[in-house]
Task: structure prediction
Amino acid sequence: MTDQSPLPENPGAGERKYWLDSRANVDKIYWGLVVICAALFLGDALYQKHPEFSFEKTFGFYALFGFGAFVFIVFVAKGLRKILKRGEEFYADPEDGS
Result:
């Protein structure tokens, strides 16, 4: 993670501070997820698999497959955005004259 934080450290007067407003709490969640994902990836070696196909026996196959599918979805969404994106004036009132 980068040190450039979009989260405010000190909210203004009268603003309520939530627990995710603190950069330290966000970092705890991030690193907690990293540890959980690493543990699940390593835990793949601790049980006997009964695969339907031979490539499913590969260590960490489902973790790598899920990550690859996620990356694929992100890139497809970026491409779709270029096709489906509307201009800033798309929702402007036609009778407004602007």
In short: Residues 1-47 form one domain. The mean pLDDT is 85. The CA atoms of residues 35 and 95 lie 56 Å apart.
